[in-house]
User: What shape does this take?
Amino acid sequence: MNLAQRAKNYKDKEVPLKLVACVKTTPDTTATVKVENGKATWGDAPLVINPWDEYAVEAALRLKEANGGTVTAISVGGEEARIGLKHALAMGADEAVLISDPALAGLDPQGIAHILSAAIQKLGGVDLAFFGRQAIDDDSGTTPSQAARLLGWPALTLVSVIKLEGTGVHVERAIEEGRQIVSAKLPAVISLVKDIGEPRYPSFMGIRRASKAEIPTWSLSQLGSPAPVASVETLALLNAPVREVVCELVTGSNPQEIAEALAEKILGEKLL
Ligand SMILES: Cc1cc2nc3c(=O)[nH]c(=O)nc-3n(C[C@H](O)[C@H](O)[C@H](O)COP(=O)(O)OP(=O)(O)OC[C@H]3O[C@@H](n4cnc5c(N)ncnc54)[C@H](O)[C@@H]3O)c2cc1C
Assistant: This one.
């Protein structure tokens, strides 16, 4: 069955695709993160949607545009997590849900995956859950696989191309050695890499819509989930070691002289 037929079947059965994008709010990529008094701080740098999660939203929107359906953005966090959710809404997500509860502070990726999978189950009938490949602040890159394990769904990671085929999905995985094409039955978890395509800029209308949108908050009791306990304990946060860099300017009266002096240096240091 090709993609168009599948979409038609979905529409005939009145079961549109249900897509979820998991988004985290992180400091801007230009932020300088430092450790002060044992805590990570990024000063006044703005918070943004985790840049990898823009690809997750983009992939979900493209699949919706080709096949119909809905895209729901979800996030686990405090009030600041609304920033990522509003960005997803401004890009075109249909709705957003924040999962927030004081008992969730200090969760590790396994705990976050536990909450995300409970939310995906509460939404019900989800066909695909999209994740970024990693969060740019904590960088564990494990949340998608852990969520897939908890849901009992296939985990398709580092995906660059997605095609729906019948009741399953074919994807291309971007791995160091090349491309791997794999298929799995729906429902499934997918984490995205950049090759999926440049995320769209939110339109003016999208930003206006997002600014007015009501984002419901689910507490743990509304989720029907007990508070997960972190299984990984962070013992210390340390600043990156300061690297001593010595710069030497290679000079000469013309480009040839400079190139020869540079080549001599490189050979002298046995770099080649
Ligand atoms: C012991 C411990 C204590 C911690 N305490 C805190 C704390 O107090 N405050 C704090 O902010 N962080 C805390 N963290 C870090 C936080 O829990 C992690 O950010 C979270 O576990 C996800 O891991 P990651 O950021 O490495 O995500 P990755 O696994 O790198 O993320 C991959 C993808 O998963 C999805 N994703 C990740 N996190 C979320 C989320 N919250 N909501 C929706 N989707 C998500 C996104 O699609 C993302 O692209 C703590 C971690 C540990 C281990």
